[in-house]
Amino acid sequence: MCFVQIILKIIWVSTVNPGRGDQLELSYQLNTVKPHDVIVYPNPLNAALYDNITFTNLKSSWTINILNEYGQLVRSLKSQPLLNRVAWDIRNQRGNKVAPGIYLYQIKAESTQYIGKLAIVR
Q: What is the torsion angle, in degrees rounded to the nearest 10, for the CA atoms of residue 32, residue 106, residue 57 and residue 4?
C-alpha cells in the first residue's frame, strides 16, 4: 500500500505580537492505491473447484485486460463505480470458457499500467 503525506501550513499574523507570523502545521495521510496493489485470487485457479477469478483493491476508472500467452486480448473488464473489485468468469469475449494455461492481466490506470500473471489449471 502506498501512502502520501500532505502537509498544510497555515501562517497568520498575530494580533498579540505584531510583526510576528505564527504557524500551524497540519499533517494528513492520504491512502492511494496503485495498480501493483491489486490482489488477484484464487491464483492459480483450479477450474474444477472455482468458476471465477477476483481482482480486488481497484479504483473505479481502471480497466483490466486478460491476455493469452501471445499477447492477444481474451477479455476486457471494467471496474465498477463504488466497488473495489471485479470478477472474471474465465470466459473470453465470445462467452466460451478459456483453456487451462498461463494468462497475463494488464491493469490500465489513469497514467500507468501494470502487468501480472495468473494461471488456470483443471
A: -10
Query: Average pLDDT of 54-74?
Result: 93
User: What CA–CA distance (Å, rounded) separates 69 from 91?
Assistant: 16
Question: For 75-121, what is each residue's pLDDT tens digit?
Answer: 999 987 778 899 999 999 999 999 999 999 999 988 889 999 999 99
If one counts every other C-beta atom within 10 angstroms of the C-beta of residue 65, the result is: 16
Give yes or no for a cis peptide into 100 (omega within 30° of 0): no
Grid cell, residue 60, equals 473505479
Grid cell digits, residue 9? 501550513
Cell of 111: 497514467
Q: 78 pairs with which residues across the strands?
A: 63
